[in-house]
């Protein structure tokens, strides 16, 4: 991620135009295109076949955060381009653009623009294995790959343990899933290697590792473990476990992660629950979320190292509570409150804002989205 300060007014104009453009493209993508079903509901012709087309998707968001009394306004845009090639190849590229407005030393609000390349990868997909090359999200635990996008995460605050491991990799990955001897258990895996890169946009560590998991489709339960070995600097290794359960009887999700590193970044865990109030007619679009987490800093760290690590240099406890309201499946309002306890740094954490997800085919004949 790279940051640069720009005049707030110029960036606000550019960001507003970008949001307008993405919204217009997405709405155009939702128009009826080459749809084989007629308005009378006739069946599609027998020779009609679906075809894969490039898709532009992603999200826009605007959040106001109050962290220990410090106010931040943060509009952001995260476009994702998907380009299928034939039946087995897929190109994926996701970028990020954001501005964070804070009070400067003169008491005026000034914006700092950040931008980056989240991932840019080529996939070769088969039934049981997918081969990936490029820059990709490191397959460690579940948060980075599954929950990090702002339109997916139930709480906008990132868990304390996420920076313990390398979040992005540049190299190759092998992943897939197979039945584990029975249809009642599925085994999934992801193994990777990454090179060292010091580019300000594509920075990664030289490392290797992977994740394995078992999914039980009957009770909708998954559990697994991850590992990572950094092959540079002090060569720390990390290990972690994860757990996800979505019971059939109620609209509830329980998920948790634990990670421990052998180096200077410590260990910790988080556990989160999200419940959709479907049983209450007037609140069926409301989701209630809670998260508890603890982080344990590595022992006997020099004062200079503690200062350099920032939040990872202090033992920290945090509890968060939030509400999400789904206007539609692609538009959501969110609000949350958290209380963080750290030595000499107790703080209240407030967040409120909205996310919008857009999807648009970029080629004629893609059909309605």
Please render the helix and strand layout as text.
Layout (H helix, E strand, L loop, with lengths): L1 E5 L1 H22 L25 E13 L2 E16 L3 E15 L5 E17 L4 E8 L5 H5 L20 E15 L2 E10 L12 E10 L4 E10 L6 E9 L6 E10 L5 E10 L9 E11 L6 H7 L6 E13 L2 E12 L4 E15 L8
Antiparallel strand pairs: 1-5, 2-3, 2-17, 3-4, 4-5, 5-6, 6-7, 7-8, 8-9, 9-10, 10-11, 11-12, 12-13, 13-14, 14-15, 15-16, 16-17
Structural notes for this entry:
The chain has a 16-stranded antiparallel beta barrel. The protein has one domain (about 1-30, about 50-360): Porin, CATH 2.40.160. It is globular, with a radius of gyration of 22 Å. About 10% of the residues lie in helices and about 55% in strands. The model is unreliable at about 25-40 (pLDDT under 50). The chain contains three helices and 17 strands. By secondary structure, the chain is mostly beta strands.
CATH superfamily: Porin
Q: How many helices does DSSP assign?
A: 3
Q: Quick one: how many beta strands? A: 17
Strand content: over 45%
Largest sheet: 16 strands, antiparallel, barrel
| SSE succession | EHEEEEEHEEEEEEEEHEEE
Short account of what is shown:
With 369 residues, the protein is mostly beta strands. It is 9% helix and 54% strand. The chain has three helices and 17 strands.
